[in-house]
Specification:
single chain, alpha+beta, two-stranded antiparallel sheet, elongated, binds iron/sulfur cluster, binds FE2/S2 (inorganic) cluster, EC 1.3.5.1
């Protein structure tokens, strides 16, 4: 009996186009030095992989002390926002081939929040601002005996702002927030918008008053950094403008 052999034309070529890429990462360890410093890591990697894959490779193969947050690895949990080549992005949604791997790729923590270690910042002020705008449905009156119905048109009014994953890419790209961490920031306003414009909600006035504060919506200077940074494509600046308009007209 003859043994089956592979004809040359049947053989699959190893087509993995690995490249050599350098990741210039801003490192910080308060137990070692008071200042952050840049450190280069050069690796072989498929350019179709993501920056998160590169960070894993560096951590697992070169330096286990490299510290960053990530969870889902698929653009859903919002935990791996970082500045990549000077722009806020999710590491798990950024392909290496799309960020010019011929030059060193810079990776650093998002700005405006206290740096704890390497790419990890203290998110507590960000989440406090989120909690402050009451990001939950407040429906007064009797308990319903069936779903609270809503027309497709009414649902559409806040559809965009339901997509937020609380990654902080918007808030930490805002110059007003950099200068004064007291500003609520775009993400909190987006999440207030999500409920203010929900026809089933009864706490719109309360949320508007919270955002009428000196650290509220009026601090926005309409720079559009937030809209550019949002990995979910939310029209963040537009949502902030709608909240401002609702404050003036009290119609929402
Ligand atoms: S609005 Fe966009 S950028 Fe801002 S926290 Fe939500 S998902 Fe992230
Ligand atoms: S790891 Fe969850 S959004 Fe990137």
């Amino acid at each position: 009996m003859s043994t089956p052999t592979l004809d040359k034309s049947d053989q699959v070529e190893d087509a993995t186009p690995y490249i050599t890429a350098t990741f210039r990462i801003r490192r910080f360890n308060p137990e070692v030095a008071a200042e952050a410093t840049w450190e280069d890591f050069t690796i072989e990697i498929d350019p179709k992989e993501r920056v998160l894959d590169a960070l894993h490779k560096i951590k697992w193969e070169l330096d286990g002390t490299l510290t960053f947050r990530r969870s889902c690895a698929h653009g859903i949990c919002g935990s791996d926002a970082m500045r990549i080549n000077g722009r806020n992005r999710l590491a798990c949604k950024t392909l290496i081939k799309d960020i010019n791997p011929e030059k060193p790729i810079t990776v650093e923590a998002i700005k405006g929040l206290t740096l704890l270690k390497d790419l990890v910042v203290d998110m507590e002020p960000f989440f406090q601002a989120y909690r402050d705008v009451m990001p939950f449905l407040v429906a007064n009156g009797n308990e319903p005996t069936r779903e609270r119905l809503q027309s497709a048109e009414d649902r559409e009014r806040f559809d965009d702002t339901t997509k937020c994953i609380l990654c902080a890419a918007c808030t930490s790209s805002c110059p007003v927030f950099w200068n004064d961490g007291q500003y609520f920031g775009p993400a909190a306003i987006v999440n207030a918008h999500r409920f203010i414009f929900d026809s089933r909600d009864d706490a719109g006035e309360q949320r508007l008053e919270i955002l009428n504060d000196r650290d509220g919506v009026w601090r926005c200077r309409t720079t559009f950094n937030c809209t550019d940074a949002c990995p979910r494509g939310i029209e963040v600046t537009k949502a902030i403008q709608e909240v401002k308009r609702a404050l003036i007209t009290r119609r929402y």
